[in-house]
Amino acid sequence: MTENGLVDLSFLKIYSGNNPDTIKKLIASFLEKTPPLVQQLETEIASRDYDRLSRTAHSMKPPVSYMGMKLITEKIAAIEDAARAKTRLEILPAMIAEVKILIDKASDELKSYMSQL
Amino acid sequence: MPKLQIKNIFLVDDDPQHNEMLREYLRQHYKVNIYPFTSGEEAVKRIGELRPAYVILDYYLDREDKNAKNGLEILKMIKKEYPDTYIVMLSGQDKIDVAVDTMKFGAYDYVVKNPSGFIRVDTIMRNIRENMKLRFYARAYRFTTFFLGGFIIAIIIAAVVLRMLGISTDNVGW
């Protein structure tokens, strides 16, 4: 969407046939459903439930990738892998915190895009 | 058992949004009846009645219900009862061992849930249709060959019998 942004809506445009209503609907759904998942990651890392954490990260990947958030998708995949293999556990909280910040930034980009549609 | 219905597709994913996106995508490309399910158990309950030719099945199905059967278990259940169903597994994991596992239990193909996944599903569905068409032609060819072979053998037997009974001779026209 933007030159140096976190979001690239090329897929949504192709998928929707460049229909602004469909794009808006999908972005709105993403904005509604993603923050609770990030919160879930935080809860699961706090309770050290690594299996659930890995599954939550896993379920976040498709919607994040559809919004063209390549960097965030990679970071979420790293969280999923680390939680599943129970490795790098000491840096998992920092990885989740970073994803939260990036998703907040990307969400702002999406909101600004939506307001222009 | 009811016949396989080429126009029926099951989408099984515990993420309703993904189901909806895929349903919309397929609706734009095919004139088919699409049945979305958020659990594998629900899909298994309806499969005998609707006999979908294709089932697009997510690998993980326990997001809401922790005790729900996962995609691999559902795959095995469907393949056991309805081995002619084409099952395409979906997953957010780009892992070769997961893909191999699903294929080992009879999945037709494995698709990673990412933007190119939609195109992959589309291509796979076209391949399956082509595959079904070829299987139909092969059956028709086998039937025709069998029928013609039988017909020729019947003519030969009839000729031999007629010859033995003296009804036919070598002196045609005399």
Structural topology:
The complex is a heterodimer of chains A (117) and B (174).
Chain A: H1 10-16, H2 20-46, H3 50-66, H4 70-85, H5 92-116
Helix pairs in contact in A: 2-3, 2-5, 3-4, 4-5
Chain B: E1 5-12, H1 16-29, E2 33-37, H2 40-50, E3 52-58, H3 71-81, E4 86-91, H4 96-104, E5 109-112, H5 115-164
Walk me through what this model shows.
The complex is a heterodimer of chains A (117) and B (174). With 117 residues, chain A is mainly alpha-helical. Chain A has one domain (10-116): Four Helix Bundle (Hemerythrin (Met), subunit A) (Up-down Bundle), CATH 1.20.120. Chain A has 5 helices and no strands. The longest helix of chain A is centred in the first third of the chain and has 27 residues, at 20-46. Chain A starts with 9 loop residues before the first helix and ends with a helix. The mean pLDDT of chain A is 92. Chain B has 5 helices and 5 strands, in the order βαβαβαβαβα. The model of chain B has no long low-confidence stretch (mean pLDDT 90). Chain B is elongated. Chain B has one domain (5-135): Response regulator (Rossmann fold), CATH 3.40.50. Chain B has a 5-stranded parallel sheet, with helices on both faces. Chain B has helices at residues 16-29, 40-50, 71-81, 96-104, 115-164, and strands at residues 5-12, 33-37, 52-58, 86-91, 109-112. The termini of chain B are far apart. In chain B, helix 1 links the parallel strand 1 (5-12) and strand 2. Chain B is of the alpha/beta class. Chains A and B meet through helix 2 and helix 3 of A and helix 1 and helix 5 of B.
Distinct helical segment count of chain B: 5
CATH topology description of chain B = Rossmann fold
Rg of chain B, nearest Å? 25 Å
Strand order of the largest sheet of chain B: 2-1-3-4-5
Please state the CA-atom Rg of chain A, rounded to the nearest Å. Answer: 15 Å
- Average pLDDT of chain B, rounded to a whole number, is 90
Number of domains of chain A: 1
Please tell me the overall pLDDT of chain A.
92
Structural class of chain A: mainly alpha
Main beta sheet strand tally, sense and closure of chain B: 5 strands, parallel
CATH-derived topology of chain A: Four Helix Bundle (Hemerythrin (Met), subunit A)
Kindly report the greatest chain-chain contact and the residue count on each side: A-B, 17 and 17 residues
Oligomer state of the chains in this structure:
heterodimer
CATH class category of chain B: Alpha Beta
DSSP summary: helix tally of chain A: 5
Percentage of residues in helical conformation of chain B: 40-55%
Strand content of chain B: 15-25%
Terminal-residue CA separation of chain B: 60 Å
**Beta strand count of chain B:** 5
